[in-house]
Amino acid sequence: MIRKRILERLPLFNRFHLTLVLMAILFATGCADMRGYLAKSLPLPGYPEDAIQRNDFVVGKDEDVIGRLATIRLERGDTLPDIARHFSLGINNISAANPGVDVWVPGAWERILLPLNFILPDTRRDGIVINLATMRLFYYQKNDDRLDVSTYPIGVGTEERPTPMGEMVITRKKHRPTWYVPASIAADHRKKGDPLPPEVPPGPLNPLGEYALYLSEPSYLIHGTNKPASIGLRATNGCIRLYPEDIERLFEKAPVKTPVLIINQPYLVGRRDGIVYLEAHTPFQESATANWKRAYAKLKHIENQSGSLLDWKKVKEVVIEARGIPVPVSADGDGVGMAAAQPIRLRHPGRLFGQPEIPAFNTDAWYVLAASLRDRTDAQRLAAIINHQGPPIPARVLSEGDQHRVLAGPFDNERAARDAARRLKIDLELDAVLFET
Amino acid sequence: MKKMILGLCMMVVLAMGLGGCATQKDLEVVQAREKAIAAKADQAAQDAENARMAADEAIAKANTAIERAEGAEQRAIERERIAAEKERMAEEKAKKADEMFKKSMKK
Q1: Is residue A80 within 8 Å of A40, Cβ to Cβ?
Q2: ipTM above 0.90 for this complex
Q3: Predicted confidence (pLDDT) at residue A206 exceeds the cutoff of 80
Q4: Is the dihedral angle over the CA atoms A50, A54, A56, A59 positive or is it negative?
Q5: The one catalytic residue among A86, A239, A281, A388
């Protein structure tokens, strides 16, 4: 009765409001369904992430630079190793290209540079060429008049056990290899209180991963890994590691007797479209000066031979910054060529390849309290590091006030939880505590 | 003669009296002026006192403001120092975590 009276008094006003309310209700119920549709149909800024080439390139005649730079905006929970793996980059590449960005807890929505262009090493372009300084493998294949190159990021030997350099060949290939533990590594593990069996069969605990290419240099292999986050690190005992998905491709492509050349070139000079580029990486301490002298001589030679001047101030900047990105250093570079060096914007794929998944919280399982910290960022960093162990250990942060607990799990049984706690102690020196929910 | 002298004396007294009357009036005028000047002097002194007090107050306020500014600057320096220390500690922790991670990535 009252409603009728009001409607009669202000018919237009009230009908308008009723319509608005009805529309709001309809919109609210439709939101969840509409979101997916809108995401698919609306043109979002930037290119789709698969628009950029990561591994396979055609080498232009008389050209030394392949690929191009890109950028991507991070989403909540992304880490730099996740982005690196998705775009087939090493942790070294992405860290150097983005100085000052926290590797494990970067700011959400931060724009990250993807260094997906590379200067080819100054070597023969045939078979496999491995550049230790840039931690990158190149596999050249001639197809009639065309030269194709596939490139993958790698992990290499430590300072104590460096990867040997020089010419070698692939002597044999093995799918699902067994790891025969070398005496020196067995001794190291014994010292750590983590004795290894004489041989490790194929499976998640095998550090060789699923594929191995044995080299003519005895005891050295190009293989996969059960620690994908180690790609781009000096973390092996001299072998060369690739991401599991990359070694699978290389294993298929490279036959036995493929020549393998291992070099160390932290400073790379190359040309594309008439522009001279310089790519500088932080050199291994033991080889810095000699390598720079070689690169400097090459730059001088290019300058003298071509008659076009180089921007030596820029050269100095590139060497000091060592961001691992090809930078144009021609003093008279034209705008078109320079514009080609600009990065393209990519859209976030939503789910990153190989990103660790954290199972739902289970109230009927075993957990391991890895640490209890007062700083949330420290806790998030530790959880991310645990998540990226190989094999992965799921971990999350449970916050309560200013107490942030890093919890590993869930584990199906006490034994699995105890194994995880042991690995946390040996690998990360954490005194973890087991408990059952 | 006596009458004449008396007359003269009376005239002198009268003249003196008359002259005296004029001096009294003048005196009153002078006194009034003096009073006015004194009042002005008092007012000026009061004004000067007020101005001095106002100046003192302004100086005191300025001193307080300077003290506050110095305090704020000190606090800002301290905050900056703490922030730098926190940043250094955070960097150190990140570096330590990174080293721990790198070690864990070995075979």
Answers
A1: no
A2: no
A3: yes
A4: positive
A5: A239
